[in-house]
Design brief:
Two copies of one chain form a homodimer. Chain A has four helices and eleven strands. Chain A folds into two domains: 67 residues, Winged helix-like DNA-binding domain superfamily/Winged helix DNA-binding domain (Arc Repressor Mutant, subunit A, Orthogonal Bundle); 136 residues, Umud Fragment, subunit A (Ribbon), CATH 2.10.109. In chain A, a hairpin with a 4-residue loop joins strand 7 and strand 8. In chain A, 19% of the residues lie in helices and 30% in strands. By secondary structure, chain A is α+β, with helices and mostly antiparallel strands. The longest helix of chain A is centred in the N-terminal third of the chain and has 17 residues. Chain A binds a DNA duplex through helix 3.
DNA sequence: ATGATAACCGAACGCCTGTTCTGTGTCAAG
DNA sequence: CTTGACACAGAACAGGCGTTCGGTTATCAT
């Protein structure tokens, strides 16, 4: 029986090992041992597995913590994406006619994973990586001037004050309205600028009530069918 | 008999162990050994660590693969979120004036992690969990009728044909225009419906060229400052 | 006091694992 | 044919690591 080597880069056995490590890690949340790799990739000797692992390390596909049990990890493009993500509790809906419910810090510790949204760290603006975020599902089409549609998920950071240019969720109790706008404080009034550049801003007198409920940090839209 | 223990569920030592496991896992991509937990949590005996681990397992905070090295993993809310996510290559920009570049399958295997977007599985519509997705960054404000703004990230699934109601990225070579619209095939023409319900559809004759480049499955907007 | 119990420590046992060393068969170049 | 690289197998060694067991201490209810 001849061994036909894959002239270039990785042979199919290398690939099989890489795939096995990935799937094993996904299932058990820890890397496989050398012997486990051998069993599942039809390699009868641990030394051969070690042999391949050395090659994969040299070619940069994996890293190894020598001497440490199960000290293999995928790197680069073979790696399961960094895995750095965090969960944001989905605490309710946001719609024009009702004030939004900002969760208290007590709520943060006891939300159910089912009603939460997972976001990759790499997607997050650097500054907002704290834990104090919450998500709301947009209901109705009243936020289209904010480029936000029915069903979209808005991720907010609770805050009472905003800097000019921040996109905020505000409750205008005089008008009985929740809205998402870019916020600007001007001499004697507030300017709320829609995200859609073709639309005009609205102005709020200082004596009108304006409650900033949170700062919008991200909008996610799962595009479903149009109905 | 009452317990003088830290009144509630977990003592601070339990919490310290949980935190250590989480941070260790993040750093090394594999769980710590019992002895490593002991060292970093000021516990001198492996049996004590085991003692705490048993409690954490009973209280549901961790799971253990008995007998195997480093077989601890966090569960539930202590867990780093499921970790199930995937990487989508960011292959370029999408703007009104230029056709979009759909990557070939060759491109998929060799994209750099730097230019990619990570998405949590849980965010993805069930059907689209295949690997054949790519992302484009929106350039310019020409897509506002699709509720998509400058800087937004659009995630597409490459396809040449669409079903009615799908949101598609199309290239209209007669008009030299790329656009995102909901797609409907009608008797003798195509109707391209903007996502913004206040805007009117455009109609494309069957003899006009219409190239479907992909189906939009998700839109992500990182909300930065307004400038 | 007494006993029960939670919270530890240290050591020992033995499987789990990574490492290393010797050896075998194949293939291509010299 | 010889040589050397390459791709393996198998066994053995040593340290890593989970488990277990006998002890100790402090607190609290009886």
């Amino acid at each position: 029986m001849m061994m036909v080597r894959k002239s270039k880069g990785l042979g199919e056995r290398h690939q099989k090992i890489l795939d096995f490590i990935a799937s094993y890690q996904r299932e058990y949340k820890h890397p496989p041992s050398i012997r486990e790799i051998g069993e599942h990739c039809d390699i009868s000797s641990t030394s051969v597995v070690n042999y391949y692992l050395d090659q994969l390390e040299k070619s940069g596909n994996i890293e190894r913590d020598r001497k440490i049990s199960r000290g293999v990890r995928l790197t680069g493009s073979s790696a399961s994406p960094s895995g750095d993500m965090f969960r944001v509790p989905m605490v309710g809906v946001i719609q024009a006619g009702e004030p939004i419910h900002v969760p208290s810090s007590a709520d943060f510790s006891s939300f159910t994973p089912e009603d939460s949204v997972e976001i990759a760290m790499s997607l997050m603006p650097a500054k907002e990586k704290g834990k104090e975020l919450f998500a709301l599902q947009v209901q109705g089409e009243s936020m289209i001037d904010a480029m936000v549609n029915d069903g979209d998920i808005v991720i907010l950071k609770p805050t009472q004050d905003a800097r000019n240019g921040d996109m905020v969720a505000v409750w205008l109790s005089d008008r009985n309205e929740t809205t998402l706008k870019f916020f600007f404080k001007e001499k004697d009034k507030f300017r709320l600028q829609p995200a859609n550049p073709t639309m005009k801003p609205i102005y709020i007198d200082r004596n009108e009530s304006l409650e900033i409920k949170g700062k919008v940090v991200m909008v996610i839209r799962k595009v479903e069918r149009y109905n």
